[in-house]
Specification:
It contains 3 helices and 6 strands; from the N terminus they run ββααββββα. With 100 residues, it is of the alpha+beta class. Strand 3 and strand 4 form a beta hairpin.
Length: 100
């Protein structure tokens, strides 16, 4: 897992932890989508219950739409972490979730 942090770390409520698969998916995105995802990750640091984030039915994770991509993440309030499991094109993310 990778922990995403920045200079603003002192004011953040949660830290972002990216699963290995999420890092790989993020690295493969075009620059424009990569930048949008990073911006949403920064927003999740401040508020993991962002407006627009929805809890997945029958699971503990949440999904967040970022353009044509979905981020699937969990929130660990005890340790103040947001764990990002998937960053995937909308067409693929639900297929991958069914396999897990």
């Amino acid at each position: 897992m990778i922990i995403l942090s920045g200079a603003r770390r002192k004011t953040m409520a949660h830290k972002i932890v990216l699963a290995k698969s999420a890092v790989k998916e993020l690295d493969g995105l075009p620059d424009k989508q990569h930048a949008r995802i990073i911006e949403h990750l920064r927003q999740l640091e401040e508020n993991p219950h962002l407006f627009g984030a929805e809890k997945l039915k029958g699971r503990e994770e949440y999904k967040l739409r970022v353009g044509n991509y979905r981020m699937v993440y969990g929130i660990d309030d005890k340790n103040k972490e947001v764990i990002v499991y998937l960053i995937e094109d909308t067409k693929q993310v639900y297929k991958r979730l069914r396999r897990k």
